[in-house]
Specification:
It contains 4 helices and no strands. By secondary structure, the chain is mainly α. α2 packs antiparallel against α4.
């Protein structure tokens, strides 16, 4: 498994190569394309139709609000999805019917779920010492936290829908 420093180095290399690729393409495009400005190139073009009237038409601001709400909820769904995955795995881990089969105190299915949740060594979860917190209890707490996050997501979603509904 890669160290955190190596992961950061890979990410920095990836971002650097991406930015360099973008800048090289912009520079090559600027050097290669012809520069021939004249009045006809500055005209508005839409499907070959001649323009009638001004091209500066005022739009109702409600359209911008709806577009902004769509973008906000789209980004919120991207942040919500990992919590939904954690909720499902935590519910599976908190099942009291899971039989303990390995020396770490976990079933192979539980070890697999811990690995999917990012725990590199699932035996560490069992070394809590004198604490009486079991795997099922801690997974249940994680499930409740992720369920709370899901409820916050839907509350924000409903407030946004109510706002758009009220605005018309």
């Amino acid at each position: 498994m890669a160290t955190p420093t190596a992961i950061v180095a890979y990410l920095a290399l990836f971002v650097t190569v991406g930015i360099l690729f973008l800048l090289v393409n912009l520079l090559v495009g600027k050097l290669v394309r012809p520069h021939d400005p004249h009045a006809e190139k500055q005209e508005i073009y839409e499907c070959g139709e001649p323009t009638i009237g001004s091209s500066f038409v005022q739009f109702d601001l409600r359209f911008y609000v709806v577009a902004l709400l769509f973008i906000i909820f789209d980004v919120e769904v991207a942040f919500f999805f990992p919590w939904a995955v954690v909720f499902g795995k935590a519910n599976h881990l908190s099942d009291p019917q899971m039989a303990v089969q390995t020396e770490s105190g976990l079933t192979p299915a539980a070890e697999g779920l811990y690995r999917e949740l990012g725990v590199s060594d699932p035996t560490l979860a069992n070394t809590l010492g004198a604490a009486d917190v079991t795997v099922a209890q801690s997974a249940g707490q994680l499930a409740w936290i992720s369920f709370g996050d899901i409820l916050v997501f839907f509350a924000v979603l409903m407030v946004g829908f109510a706002y758009v509904w009220k605005r018309g």
